Amino acid sequence: VSSAELLAPRAYCALEIAAGDVFRLTVVDGQQVPDFVFFNLDDLGERLSPTATQLANGAFVIRKGHTLYSDRGRGLLAIRECTVDEGVIVGGSCSAPANYARFGIPDTPNCRTNLIAAGAPYGLEEPDIGHIYCPFMTIVPRPDGSWVIDLPKCEAGDYVELEALLPTLALVSNCPQERAPTNAYNPSRLHTWVGGRDEAPPSLEEILADA
Amino acid sequence: MPEQLAPGATVELAPGEWRAVALAPGERLRVEALVAAQTVELIAHRRDDPRQRLSTTLTGLVEYAHQPHVGMPLWTQDHQPLLRVADQSHERHDMQLEACTPFVNCELGGHDVDYSCAANFAAALAELGLGPKWIPYPLGIFRAAGEVDGGFALLPGTAARGDFLEVAAETALTAVVSLCPLRGAPPGAPTIALTRKEAQ
């Protein structure tokens, strides 16, 4: 049985995905980035490893055809499709302390708070949620080896589709960042869908009709 | 559990070995290469609240830099002061990768060993009453990753003999230094000198 949810700007959710099932996240209004963290649903001590994923795929930017690996070296999810050729995988997300340091405004909505809240019913806490896959995020390398976040290129209807290789818990934050280019300074809606690999996910028109 | 490093003392370590060092505010920790190419991973946790730990991600975001430079603060995940880069012979270090694991070791065709920086850090944090999930992304001293033949891979360690990095404690903390078994010399011979220096 498939499930679907329209995520309001700045919202979050937790999704359980059976092995072999598919998780699709669709950009509804355009230029919006999610933060994902993933765990083996049968053993929450096994989680997404950005470094294992980058080294095993031989890629800094994570794209269609790559596999997301756990810290135990097992494939968690395969990226069946990503309609935008961007994907960052890093050891942390936007947070209230980082936003305060960068923009001088306290207690801003942020992905870290969202992901902690999404994981709390599973007994997860702050140190568990620091391993992030961020499809659609645009980063621009600089000559000194650092990088900066730029405007996202995703448009309404763009999506990423992942097939679970293990039973997976996905925590999703609809990134609230509005003071950096991450979401074009305007957080907007995302749509999640989980279903069988032979089922048809809803189109953007169907998502909008149900909204 | 390796012995505590006394103030002013130096210890030489081999690949796969590690040392926890309690630093008072102002004290420094110097990591110096005895041979080329050895990489070192460093984590740190505040003494008054060990949950406050090095965050290379937050540091990179708020400092707008992904390689350490002299004078650069290294922050905790809640933007509390932890360390400051006091001196170094070059800036080619890593602030983006996780601690090395047995899986990564094998994935890269490394030695078939039963130690890793992640295992070393887990042993050190157990003494602080923290489980493995409290291992932060380390400062990868002399470690580099980047493009190789159109892909992404670890690069050879950036240290020449005599290269060093020195950090100063901004608060009372426990630093843990692990000599990465990846890309290093075979276990046995010391490759890094670790010195605890008094406040200046």
- Total strands of chain A: the figure is 14
Q: Strand content of the residues of chain A, in percent?
A: 35-45%
Gyration radius of chain B, rounded: 15 Å
Q: Strand sequence of the main sheet of chain B, in spatial order? A: 1-12-3-10-6-5
Q: What's the total count of β strands of chain B?
A: 12
In round numbers, the mean pLDDT of chain A is 96
Average predicted local confidence, pLDDT of chain B: 91
Largest interface (C-beta under 8 Å):
A-B, 35 and 36 residues
Work out the helicity level of chain B. Answer: 10-25%
Report the span from N to C terminus of chain A. 20 Å
Could you list some keywords that capture this structure?
heterodimer; A: 211 residues; alpha+beta; 36% strand; globular; B: 200 residues; mainly beta; four-stranded antiparallel β-sheet; 3 helices; 12% helix
Helices and strands, with pairings:
The complex is a heterodimer of chains A (211) and B (200).
Chain A: E1 3-7, E2 12-17, E3 22-27, E4 34-40, E5 43-47, H1 50-57, E6 67-69, E7 75-82, E8 87-90, H2 96-103, H3 111-119, E9 132-135, E10 138-141, E11 147-150, E12 159-164, E13 168-174, E14 190-195, H4 204-210
Antiparallel strand pairs in A: 1-14, 2-13, 3-12, 3-14, 4-5, 4-13, 6-7, 7-12, 8-9, 10-11
Chain B: E1 10-13, E2 18-23, E3 28-33, E4 40-46, H1 56-63, E5 73-75, E6 81-88, H2 102-107, H3 117-126, E7 139-141, E8 144-148, E9 151-155, E10 164-169, E11 173-179, E12 192-197
Antiparallel strand pairs in B: 1-12, 2-11, 3-10, 3-12, 4-7, 4-11, 5-6, 6-10, 8-9
